[in-house]
Amino acid sequence: MINLLLGGTNLPVLLSEIYRSVSRQQHIELVAGKKGLSNEVKWIHVVENKEIASFLEGKEVVFTTGLAVQTEEKLSGLIKENIKNNVSGMVINIGPYISEVSNKIVAYCEKNDFPLFIVPWNVKIARIMKTFSSYIIDDEKKQLEITSAINNALFSSEQTRLYIPTLKRYGFQINSQYIIAVIKFYKNLDNLTITNIKKEVEFILKLLYNQTVVTQIDNVFVILFTGLSSSEIKHTVKKITLMIETKITGTAYLIAVGNATDNLTTIKSSYQKALKIIDMYGNKMTPINVIFYDDMGIYKVLLEIKDPNVVQSYILNTIQVLFDYDQLNGTSYTKTLRLYLEYNGAVSRLAEELFVHRNTINYRIDKIEKITNSDLSDFNKRLELALAFKLKSLFFD
After folding, report:
1. What is the DSSP letter of 221?
2. Which residues sit opposite 13 in a β-bridge?
3. Cβ atoms 244, 253 nearer than 8 A
């Protein structure tokens, strides 16, 4: 199960969901277009001829008794007009006007992934229409209630009465694994682009997993993963990144995935971790678009530092003297030391990276030790300096 908290409106209702619900209560049969069951449904309409179909806005389920399309040619024309107008699916009342749907029409709908349903005449089509419309209305109510409850879980976690009863009613387990991810864009996107991105993400999530919720928090998109493995989350996030890069090429964005929590009352912690990652990395415009809290290593500890003055003081007492020396003398000892620490003291590799002789590297290391008053053969000293570089990168670069 996965829940997306993203845009201002509720998630799309998929035709597959409605069909599952209706088929439990009414006699309705899918005869073609199974692949199109992932279509979004906004509402339903009765359409008896292709002239009326031309006024459809798209994403409707169309119902017809066949009163005005009693021949195969006319029925085929109505179906083609529905497909042209982006109708999500069609329900035909089999009876005195349309006795059967020909193999030719079934094949055409199958070819176009257009869901075609039939309902026997003795079944009141009005009842099925009511079930369709009720599902759409009830789903909207459900999404709004869940959205409100999850917002309360994030911002009023101590007041469990504001969200636990609602979430339990909709199938959320109190004790389960919850992980929150945050998506932030660093470019002002127009409303149409935001809407399109929102819909694409919604469909990715809802097609992969069953229960999904949508909302927006401040200026970021938020995703709540429920009961998914690490590999499932990474697979989903990868699909989202591919979609974003296809839709808005070149835009800067970051997806931060927080830590796992084991209770609904603690999802706030995962949300805050994701926001901290955004705060630390978000202004750097690095080529990295996705950061998982679990993959951060020592940065998990650094993430918990709340006072930037402590960080500034630490840098000042370790590597700032080297930055100052380089600035005054036009040298590059800071870069040499950073790479030396990253390569774990491998002089040959460092010499290749900087296109200089080994002796030059050894000279620079001696000079760096004097400037910083450090012994680089001491593991603790190397760790101290490496930590200073990481802190500077996180807080000030």
Report:
1. E
2. 41
3. yes
Q: Which whole number is the average pLDDT over 75-83?
A: 95
Architecture of the domain made up of 139-295: 2-Layer Sandwich (3.30)
φ, ψ (nearest 5 deg) of residue 134: -65, -40
- For the full predicted model, state whether its pTM sits above 0.85: no
- Answer whether 11's CB lies under 8 Å from 202's CB: yes
pLDDT tens digits, one per residue of 121-156: 998 888 899 999 999 999 888 888 988 899 999 999
Nearest to 99 by CA among 128, 75, 82: 75
The pairing of strands 40-41 and 13-14 is antiparallel
d(CA 32, CA 115): 5
Assigned CATH topology for domain 308-395: Arc Repressor Mutant, subunit A (1.10.10)
User: CA-CA distance, 165 to 316, in Å (whole number)?
Assistant: 51
Considering only the C-alpha atoms of the chain, give the largest distance between any 2 of them, rounded to a whole number of Å: 98
pLDDT value at residue 296: 86
Which superfamily, per CATH, for 29-122?
A: HprK N-terminal domain-like (3.40.1390.20)
